[in-house]
Design goal:
It holds the Pfam family PAS_3. It catalyses: ATP + protein L-histidine = ADP + protein N-phospho-L-histidine. It is a single chain. It is built from 40 helices and 47 strands. With 1260 residues, the chain is of the alpha+beta class. The chain has nine domains: 121 residues, PAS domain (Beta-Lactamase, 2-Layer Sandwich), CATH 3.30.450.20; 111 residues, PAS domain (Beta-Lactamase), CATH 3.30.450; 105 residues, Beta-Lactamase (2-Layer Sandwich), CATH 3.30.450; 127 residues, Beta-Lactamase (2-Layer Sandwich), CATH 3.30.450; 101 residues, PAS domain (Beta-Lactamase, 2-Layer Sandwich), CATH 3.30.450; 125 residues, Beta-Lactamase, CATH 3.30.450; 102 residues, Beta-Lactamase, CATH 3.30.450.20; 107 residues, PAS domain (Beta-Lactamase), CATH 3.30.450; and more. Strand 38 and strand 39 form a beta hairpin.
């Protein structure tokens, strides 16, 4: 049997972890037709352990369909051609369960013939179900976003990728094919909001909290939308921000509705003011009474004075109170709206008449009946109506006495009859025979045609048309005559007869004009109240509408008007009800008030309220209906708005945990809002009083509260107080009460106020204090301090720990000079420029890293973070921020970089790689070198099954067994196994690792390293034999290499200058013709050669000494060393006319390695000459000093200088050059620093381009 059978020789997978348990192993031997399953695979297929599979069910009971056909094809290809395959399929187990499986089959061939199939079958049901659930959730989210007109987004900070939902692209009217980055998103943000939104994202990154925000976006088509955004900041285990996610909602329509509501409220207030009307509301159960501001003026109450129904009722005229009671009770009992009037007594005892319209609505929550309505001051209107009635009575009396006459006319016979008074009115002698001509001749010539037309029309239509005309008397006096009549049939002869009265209305002309004005006023009133008058003659089907009713219905007055016209306007959904109501009215003779909708010709819909009356004849038959229709569309909208406002008020109370209350001690009135009941934990609507409220107060606070109540009842203002209460579950709440004192008309104290649950605020303040303490501790632990700086006043505030970081005495006033005095000289310019940039731009976009020098000359590295605080006008107020001592961190980071580099080298040199295995997700991450060792593609993240394929078949069971044992014991013992690479070469891998547990102690991850030990195993014996001799050789070789390297570097560098000077002197010697000058130059040849010889001898002597450089020291004189340097560099000094100044008065000698000291002088002076400025004579200054017992040197020149910002960090690096000088090699400063450090010293520099360079050296 092939070696692959070792996979199934022992079945130990039954106790494997969850990530291995769902991997089953199978094997099919083609020749013997034998199929083998391990126990895990039997569990997957839900068959007993005794189950023996065969060739027909190698892969289980496959569900019928295209997937099964594909599986059969793949299996056939594997048998025929030895082609391995992977695919997913579904099985139905004997228990009826449906499971989704993934199979990976490998074919083993011999002489191009498939001998066996083996592989892994993984249960992926859970993953499949999860994918389906995720798909459903995603769809639900998409529907929710469309309904809410919102979109979601996620920003991955590490990857710097921003993902938006489809609906967000829809809101922006942008194609999804054009991905939206953060910068592109900011382009959509309204220019006035852009800076604020960008700042909020920055703030979220800093504070790890995403603030809610409202802002506007401007689309490409010019559309402006209002957006609301909420979000959440996700951090990792170390508190670092990894993701910001949230939603954006288009609230444009909501904003517009809010604006419309405000406008409607303003319009309502204007309407009330212009019509001297107001609205009111009375809860018949609780007595709660509300009214609009305009009613204060109408009822003559002081504006803002607390009003109850009882207070208002006291002002009603005593004689009208029963009438008011009856009317309100009727509305409450019947639910039918009622209009009535009553008198009101004002503060100055004058009488006003109010017209009240009352209706009843039910509270949907508690079914309380609430009376609502309007009140209008009709005092002036009543007065005018009374005057008009009196005048009409006097007018009627006068008409009967003097200016009215009775007449009768038969058209067929031209017979005319006049009463006596009519003869007098027409000044016609009673002796004359009367005819129609007698009357017609008296008519004013301009009116004759009009009168004849009216008479003829009346005769034809058998209906009299009333009219008014003028007559001319014998003295040419003109009188106005009004004709009223009717057409009848004479009972005696059956002829047509016209009869009626003539009224001299000459004296009433002024009253007609007044009446015309009244009609105009009535029309105006109808328009203001959106009311129209109607009349329907049921017998003739004639319909009359007032002008305003035509306007309400949008009906042209010139068009015919019938009952059907009216019915056709009614909304189709209300038409059946209206017709039924009219039929009921025809039967009962009672017209019930109704409300319905109409639809105008333009499609708009209005809500109409109709009231009317019915006129019956003696038989009880309906002759006529008349009434009014009112357009209440806007009123209905206002009612809905009012309900919405009340709902929002309740929500606002709940959100603010606030309740309102009223206490009138003299009237024993104590009322609470619903939210206040909830705060106290009382049942809504239950009886409350002051004693019950006091009983809830926390015992230590009771006396204080009682004292406050005593002061309030004595009229002493206590606007605000706090106390605690204990609710039913023994929870203690802290409440804040705000109140106002007022007095009623009798001088009794009344209180109105709010109670807010501020428990959370108090707890937050306490938590804030604790956080401040923790902040101090945290600052100290993190070597951090906080600061504030006002750039306008220069005043700074530092936390205590910041004083400690700067080594300053606590409380010392901090100004800019003191702050800068601590900055390292090399960083001062950078710090000043950073601060100036923040002040100029009013933005802080980056950290500032700098060094400070403490009192003991020690240097610390700090990082400063600043944030700009602005006022409401966007002007900077101050800067706030933190400063952290990162000296140790920088050192660790540098060490880490070096360690990582060494680790990479070590991996490559040692054939080691590092790995991590997430047990839960079954994902393996491996270092680049390990992937190379295992022969995987770069970047691959194999799972356990894929890794097993790389394991040598003979070792696979071992790997599974050890993996199982590690997870069970939670202990990783190193082991090794073999792998088979793609080229069939075999390598041996050694693994060591560690087990990672979660909080519950479960294994969640394995981490470790793997090493290719193939060569180690092969060479192990050889290494053991030669190890001893190799160690000796290594020691000797290392020592020699070290000496050789040191000698090589020092020799190549230190000999360059003397040799170069020899060449220069040779050039001078050849170029001069002055013999004395040649002799002088030749003498310098001798000096340079002597020094060169001496240097060579010293180098040879130094390299031959095995002790460290520190041991090769002697007492040296700075003057002598400088003189020797001048002699070596004589040619350069002559050529450049350089001037060297020195001051060794503070330290003349030093004990030092002579070769190193000469090398330091030679390198630094030669550099000053080499990199001198062509614009000026070289000036070189060398100064010695003693600081804290250590000897220092300072070399200063006025040469080209170095750009320290760009090159400062690599100034002393090997082969680093900063100028284009042909002799620049980048070795001098590297060797100089190495020599100084070897002697236990240090070197630093400061430099400015085209100014010069200064080197600071601490020698020992």
């Amino acid at each position: 049997m092939s070696t692959e059978n070792t996979l199934l020789q022992t079945d130990k997978t039954s106790t494997t972890p969850s990530s291995i348990k769902n991997i089953g192993i199978f094997q099919f031997e083609v020749d013997s037709n034998k199929v083998t399953w391990n126990d895990v695979l039997r569990e997957i297929h839900q068959v007993p352990k005794t189950f023996i599979p065969n060739a027909d069910n190698i892969y289980g009971n496959c569900k019928e369909g295209i997937v099964k056909e594909n599986l059969i094809k793949a299996h056939t290809q594997a048998l025929l051609k030895g082609v391995s395959f992977e695919l997913e399929y579904e099985v139905i187990t004997p228990k009826g369960s449906s499971r989704f499986l993934h199979v990976a089959t490998h074919a083993t061939t011999n002489d191009n013939k498939c001998t066996s199939l083996h592989g892994f079958i993984t249960d992926i049901t859970h993953t499949k179900v999860k994918n389906i659930e995720n798909h459903i959730l995603k769809k639900q989210l998409e529907y929710a976003e469309k309904l809410a007109n919102s979109g979601s987004w996620k920003w991955d900070i590490n990857l710097d990728t921003l993902t938006w939902s489809d609906n967000f692209y829809h809101i922006l009217k942008r194609h999804k094919e054009k991905p939206l980055s953060f910068e592109t998103f900011l382009e959509y943000v309204h220019i006035e909001d852009k800076e604020e939104i960008a700042a909020k994202f920055d703030l979220a990154l800093k504070t790890k909290h995403f603030p809610d925000s409202n802002y506007r976006i401007a689309l490409k088509d010019g559309t402006i939308k209002n957006m609301k955004s909420i979000g959440e900041v996700i951090t990792d285990a170390h508190g670092e921000v990894i993701t910001i996610m949230g939603t954006c909602q288009d609230i444009t329509e909501s904003k517009e509705r809010d604006q419309q509501l405000i406008q409607k409220k303003q319009q309502l207030e204007l309407t009330e003011n212009s019509s001297e009307a107001g609205t009111w509301q009375l809860n018949t159960k609780t007595g709660a009474f509300k009214w609009s501001d305009n009613l204060y003026k109408i009822t003559d109450f002081e504006y803002g004075e607390p009003i109850s129904f009882e207070v208002l009722y006291a002002r009603i005229h005593p004689k009208d109170k029963p009438h008011v009671d009856k009317a309100l009770q009727s509305v409450k009992n019947t639910g039918i709206k009622k209009t009535f009037s009553h008198r009101l007594i004002t503060r100055d005892k004058s009488i006003r008449t109010l017209e009240i319209t009352a209706d009843v609505v039910s509270n949907r929550i508690n079914n309380d009946k609430v009376l609502i309505g309007t009140a209008r001051d009709i005092t002036d209107r009543i007065k005018i109506e009374h005057e008009l009635i009196e005048k009409n009575q006097l007018l009627n009396f006068a008409e009967h006495l003097t200016t009215m006459g009775y007449w009768r006319y038969k058209p067929e016979t031209d017979d005319v009859f006049w009463s006596d008074n009519l003869y007098q009115m027409f000044e016609q002698p009673k002796t004359d025979k009367l005819s129609f001509s007698t009357y017609f001749n008296k008519i004013h010539s301009d009116d004759k045609a009009f009168v004849k037309e009216k008479i003829d029309q009346s005769i034809i239509d058998h209906k009299f048309y009333d009219f008014t005309h003028r007559i001319v008397l014998s003295d040419n006096t003109i009188r106005f005559i009004q004709i009223l009549g009717k057409v009848t049939i004479n009972r005696n002869d059956g002829s047509q007869e016209l009869l009626g009265t003539c009224l001299d209305v000459t004296d009433n002309e002024s009253r007609e004009l007044e009446l015309s004005k009244k009609n105009q006023q009535l029309n105006v009133a109808e328009k203001m109240a959106m009311i129209g008058y109607w009349q329907w003659n049921t017998t003739t089907n004639e319909v009359f509408w007032s002008d305003n009713l035509h306007a309400i219905y949008g009906h042209d007055k010139r068009e015919p008007l019938t009952f059907e016209t009216y019915i056709n306007y009614i909304h189709k959904e209300d038409k059946k009800t209206v017709v039924a109501n009219l039929e009921t009215a025809m039967k009962t003779g009672e017209f019930l008030e109704s409300t319905y909708r109409i639809q105008l010709d333009d499609g708009s819909i209005k809500i109409i309220k109709s009231v009317g009356k019915i006129t019956l004849n003696s038989k009880g038959e309906v002759l006529e209906m008349s009434g009014t229709c009112q357009d209440i569309t806007e009123n209905k909208k206002k009612e809905l708005e009012l309900l919405e406002i009340n709902r929002q008020l309740n929500l606002a109370e709940q959100m603010a945990m606030l309740g309102m209350w009223v206490w009138k001690p003299s009237k024993n009135i104590f009322k609470w809002s619903d939210s206040l009941y909830k705060i106290y934990g009382f049942e809504l609507g239950s009886d409350v009083n002051i004693d019950k409220a006091i009983s809830m107060i926390y015992t230590p606070d009771k006396e204080k509260v009682k004292e406050v109540i005593k002061n309030l009842l004595n009229g002493i203002e206590v606007p605000r107080s706090t106390y605690r209460i204990i609710v039913n579950n023994n929870e203690i709440k802290t409440l804040e009460v705000r109140r106002e004192i007022s007095k009623d008309e009798h001088g009794n104290i009344e209180l109105l106020g709010t109670t807010q649950d501020i428990t959370h605020i108090v707890e937050t303040e306490q938590l804030l204090q604790e956080k401040n303490h923790l902040l101090s501790f945290t600052e100290e632990m993190a070597s951090m301090g906080s600061w504030q700086w006002n750039p306008h006043t220069g005043i700074s505030k530092w936390s205590d720990n910041l004083y400690k970081l700067y080594d300053l005495e606590l409380g010392v006033p901090i100004d800019m000079d003191l702050f800068l005095s601590r900055i390292h000289p090399e960083d001062s310019e950078k710090v000043v420029e950073h601060i100036e940039h923040i002040v100029a731009t009013q933005k802080s976009e980056s950290l500032l890293s700098y060094r400070i020098v403490l009192n003991d000359d020690s240097i610390r590295s700090l990082e400063l973070m600043a944030e700009v605080v602005k006022d409401s006008n966007g002007q900077m107020i101050e800067l706030i921020g933190t400063a952290q001592d990162v000296t140790d961190r920088i050192k660790r980071e540098q060490d880490l970089i070096e360690k990582n580099q060494l680790l990479t080298f070590a991996e490559q040199l040692s054939s080691i790689g590092y790995w991590k295995w997430d047990i839960i997700q079954d994902v393996m991450e491996k270092s680049e070198n390990l992937l190379k060792i295992l022969d995987f593609e770069p970047g691959a993240k194999p799972d356990f099954k894929t890794y097993l394929k790389r394991v040598h078949p003979a070792d696979r069971e071992k790997v599974i067994d050890i993996s199982q044992r590690i997870i069970e014991t939670k202990k990783f013992d190193k082991f090794h196994h073999r792998i088979v690479k793609n080229d069939n070469s075999i390598k041996t891998i050694k693994l060591i690792g560690e087990v990672i547990l979660d909080k519950e102690g479960n294994v969640i991850e394995l981490i470790g390293s793997s090493q290719d030990i193939t060569e180690q195993i092969e060479a192990h014996q050889k290494i053991m034999d030669t190890n001893r001799s190799l160690e000796k050789s290594t020691i000797n070789l290392t020592s020699k290499n070290k000496q050789l390297a040191e000698f090589n570097h020092i020799t190549s560098h230190n000999l360059r200058s003397p040799v170069s000077n020899l060449n220069a002197l040779l050039g001078l010697y050849k170029s001069t013709e002055n013999e004395s000058k040649k002799i002088e130059i030749f003498e310098k040849f001798e000096i340079v050669i002597d020094h060169l010889t001496e240097t060579l001898n010293a180098l040879i002597e130094t390299i031959s000494i095995k002790n460290s450089a520190v041991e090769i020291t002697q007492e040296l004189c700075f003057e002598q060393t400088l003189l020797k340097t001048k002699e070596i560099l004589a040619a350069e000094l002559i050529k450049s006319n350089a001037n060297i100044r020195c001051d060794f008065s503070k330290a003349q000698n030093v004990r030092y390695n002579p070769i190193y000291l000469e090398s330091i002088f030679l390198n630094l002076v030669s550099n000053s000459l080499k990199y001198r400025s062509e614009d000026r004579v070289p000036e070189i200054s060398i100064t010695s000093n003693t600081v804290n017992g250590r000897i220092t040197l300072e070399f200063e020149d006025n040469g080209l200088g170095i750009d320290m910002k760009s090159n400062g960090h690599k100034l002393f690096g090997l082969n680093k050059v900063f100028h284009k000088h042909p002799d620049a090699k980048g070795i001098g400063l590297f060797l100089t620093k190495a020599q100084i450090v070897a002697m236990g010293g240090s070197i630093s520099a400061k430099s400015k381009v085209d100014v010069g360079t200064t080197f600071f050296i601490i020698l020992n």
